[in-house]
Automatic annotation (TrEMBL):
GO terms for biological process: exocyst localization; exocytosis. GO terms for cellular component: exocyst. PANTHER family: EXOCYST COMPLEX COMPONENT SEC6-RELATED, TUMOR NECROSIS FACTOR ALPHA-INDUCED PROTEIN 2. It comes from the Eukaryota. Belongs to the SEC6 family. Residues 18-48 are annotated as: Disordered. Gene3D superfamilies: Exocyst complex component Sec6, C-terminal domain (1.10.357.70). This is Tumor necrosis factor alpha-induced protein 2-like isoform X2. Residues 22-48 have a biased composition (Polar residues). It holds the Pfam family Sec6. One of its GO terms (molecular function) is SNARE binding.
Length: 632
């Protein structure tokens, strides 16, 4: 572990004056401007103004006034190599040149030493770093001057102090990242790799905050020191992480590494103190794309495997309960299955955490790319077995499944970020089929038992209310067996039942067993259909259905039966066809044939209008109904 003891001390107070002449420059004589005052009968003591203190190079060096010392050396260099002839400088001043060279080497070492302590300076010691940076800039300017001159430069030109500055900071960063400070608290919950990454990340954050908080003030703006340091730390951390990745990682270490690359590191750079000073865009990712993709693919494969394993276990437990003849759990009197809740929580957790680990929600969606096969196909197969075998507890399980189907559908529609669009559509298609097969399984026995009442619809006996009342009573009685689903699922089931009963009602009516020969019979049929529609809908509302639109279909059919004028009949057919575009010519002909006083030409005129309507099209959102009504 590193113990930071670096720092710069013993700076000369900033009020001192610095001379930039020769080392032993004589002091200027003092000037006496005092006057005598005779107010007390004797002259006042003579007062002298303080004289500026002119430091020698050695004094500046000892006080670590690096830029001032550097300037003196540059001035000496100028005298030796510019003011004197070149031959004189080397021939007659060899001793001075060697001394200058030695002084420059000593100053260079001290400047680099100061730069090497940049990140562990106290606030009151930053002046020394400022002076070191200024010395570097002076040397860079002097290098440029010699480059522009048509004269042989000294042997130390170009000095390359800027490159030395950069390499010194790089060495500093590497040393701090290789030996990061360790928190006092134990990291017993972390693996060795996780602890190493955490310590490097912590060191990076602390040092960058130190750079923007203090070190930045020691540099001129054009050096862009904050971005320079961020680049050094980025490259150093990147190299370390690549070495770690090359060892081969276990799952939890791989996940931790990816999370540092895609979440924690970007969060550090996004801190307000750093974000305002560091442009993180050019830094890019901590790992090269090839290595990052390999790690992400391994991670995703592992996550997919875990998801599939847990889904299989959840469905397996549900199947086992059914095989044993157990009943599903109940909640508020409704059958309940934990399948949907458990799997949805699992999927949401996996995708949410993977989004952080991968730093990309679209990549995280790949976890669910096999969900239609791993989950939906297995779940559909389980439900098919439950229906096919029709055990004593099968109806209870199907009622519980309806709620699961609803939960899955809601997640697919509302939480679209969890799935790709193809997966989402495939899953919804499977769920729609499952819901329909579940409804059919639950409702088919009821329709079988209601067949005697269905047969009387559309017959002469049907015109008597007592016959239809038998159907209502049968629906009410048989419907009790459909209780047990959650409230929302029961409403949908009752809505489906109301639609199927309405379809059967219209199908029986269009079979044409009753003949309405005159206005009185047609009015009687109108009143019967209208009354049937109201009573049927009232019953289903009580049972939980919310499909109000089904009543309106029967009302519109009743209107056709009542109307006598052909134009009015044609208009009603148009309205019916507008609301329900799946109304076919066969349906219209079957309906109009009930009115035996209409001629074949009358019926054709109505269907022609319907055909014209089809060509014009409609801007309304249509419902499907008549496509379910089979007519010959």
């Amino acid at each position: 572990m590193r113990t930071d003891t670096c720092g710069i001390r013993n700076f000369l107070p900033r009020k001192k004056w610095f001379g930039f002449g020769t080392r032993n420059q004589p002091q200027p004589p003092a000037v006496n401007n005092n006057t005598s005052s005779l107010t007390d009968g004797s002259p006042l003591p003579q007062q002298e103004e303080p004289q500026p203190v002119i430091l020698t190079y050695e004094q500046m060096f000892q006080e670590k006034l690096l830029s001032e010392a550097g300037q003196l050396l540059i001035e000496k260099e100028e005298r030796l190599f510019r003011e004197l002839k070149e031959s004189d400088a080397f021939t007659h001043h060899e001793e001075q040149v060697n001394q200058l060279k030695a002084d420059r080497k000593a100053l260079q070492d001290l400047v680099l030493q100061t730069l090497g302590q940049s990140l562990c300076l106290e606030e009151d010691s930053l002046a020394g770093l400022t002076s070191a940076v200024k010395a570097v800039m002076q040397e860079e300017d002097q290098d440029l001057l010699w480059k522009q001159r048509d004269q042989t430069p000294p042997s130390w030109r170009p000095s390359g102090w800027r490159k030395l500055h950069d390499s010194t900071l790089l060495s500093l960063v590497k040393e701090r990242m290789e030996n990061p400070s360790t928190p006092s608290a134990c990291q017993i919950k972390l693996t060795t790799i996780q602890a190493d990454i955490t310590n490097m990340g912590r060191q990076l954050k602390e040092d960058l905050l130190s750079v923007v908080g203090g070190v930045k003030r020691c540099y001129p703006q054009e050096m862009d020191i904050c971005n320079f340091y961020s680049k050094l730390y980025h490259q150093t951390l990147s190299a370390s992480l690549m070495n770690i990745a090359d060892f081969g990682l276990v799952d939890k270490d791989r996940t931790f590494l990816l999370r540092w690359v895609n979440e924690y590191y970007p969060e550090i750079l996004a801190k307000p103190q750093l974000h305002s000073e560091i442009d993180s865009g050019p830094l890019g990712k901590l790992l090269p794309e090839r290595l990052l993709k390999s790690l992400e693919d391994e991670y995703l494969s592992n996550q997919q495997g875990e998801l599939t394993t847990i889904i299989c276990r959840v469905l397996g437990e549900e199947r086992e309960k059914w095989n044993k003849g157990e009943e599903p759990e109940t909640e508020d009197g409704c059958f309940f299955s934990p399948v949907a809740y458990d799997i949805i929580q699992l999927i949401n957790g996996k995708v949410t955490s993977s989004t952080k680990v991968l730093g990309d929600p679209h990549k995280a969606q790949r976890i669910t790319c096999h969900i239609s096969k791993d989950l939906m196909d297995r779940y559909k197969s389980f439900q098919s077995d439950v229906i096919k075998q029709n055990k004593a507890n099968s109806r209870s399980f199907i009622k519980a499944n309806l709620d699961c189907i609803k939960q899955f559908s809601e997640v697919l529609n509302k939480e679209r970020h969890l799935f790709t669009e193809d997966v989402r559509k495939n899953c919804l298609r499977v769920l729609t089929d499952m819901k329909q097969s579940a409804h059919t399984y639950l409702l088919q026995p009821l329709h079988e038992r209601l067949k005697p009442q269905y047969r009387k619809l559309g017959t002469s006996d049907w015109l008597h209310q007592s016959e239809f009342k038998e159907l209502l009573d049968g629906i009410n009685k048989e419907g009790q067996d459909l209780q047990g689903s959650t409230e929302s699922c029961h409403k949908e089931l009752m809505g489906q039942l109301e639609q199927e009963v309405t379809v059967e009602y219209v199908r029986r009516l269009l079979k044409g067993k009753v003949k309405l020969k005159d206005k009185m019979q047609q009015l009687k049929a109108y009143l019967t259909v209208k009354d049937n529609a109201e009573n049927l809908h009232h019953l289903f509302v009580q049972m939980g259905s919310e499909e109000d639109w089904l009543k309106e279909i029967l009302f519109k059919i009743a209107e056709v039966l009542k109307l006598q004028d052909l134009p009015a009949i044609q208009m009603q057919v148009v309205l019916l066809g507008t609301d329900y575009p799946d109304l076919s010519e066969k349906h219209v002909l079957a309906l109009l044939k009930l009115k035996t006083d209409l001629t074949k030409a009358d019926r054709k005129s109505a269907t022609d209008i319907l055909h014209t309507l089809r060509e014009i099209g409609s801007n309304t959102q249509p419902r499907s109904f008549f496509s379910l009504v089979q007519v010959k």
